[in-house]
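Predict the 3D structure for this chain.
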Amino acid sequence: MNSPHDPASGSPSPGSADLITTPVTAPLLRGALEVESTPDGLLPHRLPARARAQFPDGQVAMAEAQPSGVRLAFRTRATVVELDAHRTRNSYVGAPERPDGRYELLVDGRPAGEDSVPGGNVLRIDMTAGTAETLPGPPGTVRFTGLPARSKHVEIWLPYNEITRLIALRTDAPVEPAPPLGETGRPVWLHHGSSLSHGSDAAGPTSTWPALAASLGGVELVNLGLGGAALLDPFTARALRDTPADLISLKLGLNVVNADLMRLRAFTPAVHGFLDTVREGHPDTPLLVISPVLCPIHEDTPGPGVPDFSGMDEGRIRFRAAGDPAERASGKLTLNVIREELARVVAQRAAEDPHLHHLDGRELYGEADFAELPLPDGLHPDAATHRRIGERFASLAFGADGPLAPGTA
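Done. Predicted structure below.
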C-alpha cells in the first residue's frame, strides 16, 4: 500500500529521518544502458553517450531519457520504501494535462503498490508554434508501506513517460542490489521499436506491451523502444550491437513512414545495414523482425503524419497522414509497402541466417482488433490494446514453438 506525501512541497513523509538512506547508483538499476550523474540526481539513459553525441534531434534525446523498462532492483527485509526523484513531465498547450507518470512496486514479481512523484519540472510544448520551455519545479518522494517483513526481491519500475533523476532510496532495513542482468537465471530480451514499444498511453510501466510480454515470457527486458525515433539510425544499431542479450526483437517501419524519412531505395539498404550492425555483436542470437501493426491512416497513404488540431477546443488531438497515395509509384513508403519489403529482406537473409525470423505486426494488432479497439488518436494504442499486444507477443514469440522461446538462445 502507499502512504501519502505532501504534493505541494515534495517533502518526504514524517518518519523518513528514521530510515536508512541508500544513494541510488548504477548497480541498483536494470534496463538502463548508462547512467549520468547530474546535480539533480542520477539520470538513467537508454542510449549510450556515444550515441547521444550523434543526434541533433530533441525528440530522440527526450525519448531515450524517459526510462521505459528501467527499474530499481534490490533485496531487503524492509517494510517501508521511499524513493526521492526529480521528474520532468510533458505538458501540451491547448490539450488536457496528461496523467502523472506511475512508479510501480513489485515484491517477488507481484504488484505491491503504485504512486506518482509530486513536483518536478514541466516541459511545456506548443505543437502549433513548434516551441517548448521548461518550467522548473522541486523534487518529490514516492513512499510504499506495509511490505512483508521478510527477505524479498523488490523492484520499482520507473515511469515510461517522464524523464526521471533518481536521488536517494530510504528503507527501514538494509538493501543490497539484486544480481545484474545476465545473472538472474532468466534470458535477457533486448527490444527496439517506436512509441508503441516505448509505452505510449499504457496504464503504467509494467503494462507497456513489452513489459507485459516479458513478464508472461519469463525474460528480463531491456527496452530500447524510442517514441518517434525508431528510424533505422546507425547509432541505435550500434547500441543494440553492444548490449548483451540472449534474445532480440526489432519492430521497424512505422516511424519511417510517419516521419516521411526515406524512399524505398534508401529503406532497403538501411534495413540491411541495421541488421548487419546488430549481427556484428550478436551473430547467432535469435533475432525477430516485426513489421508494423495495423495503423489505418498509413496503410496505403505515405507520411508525413501530422497532428490534427481541429479538436483542440475539445481537448482532442488526432493524427492524419499528409502524403499522397499516388506517390507510392515514386518510392514513397506506406505500411503495406514496408511490410512486404521487410518480409522479403528477412526471407532473403534467413537463407544464411537460421536464427533470423519475421513476424507480421498485424498478427499482434490487425483489422479485427481495430474494429474492437480503435486507436484513440489514430496512431497510438490505449491501455487495453497494450495488454492485447503483450499477451499475443508472449504467445507468438516466447511460446513453445516461438522464435524467442526458452532454449532458443
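The two ends are 38 Å apart (CA to CA).
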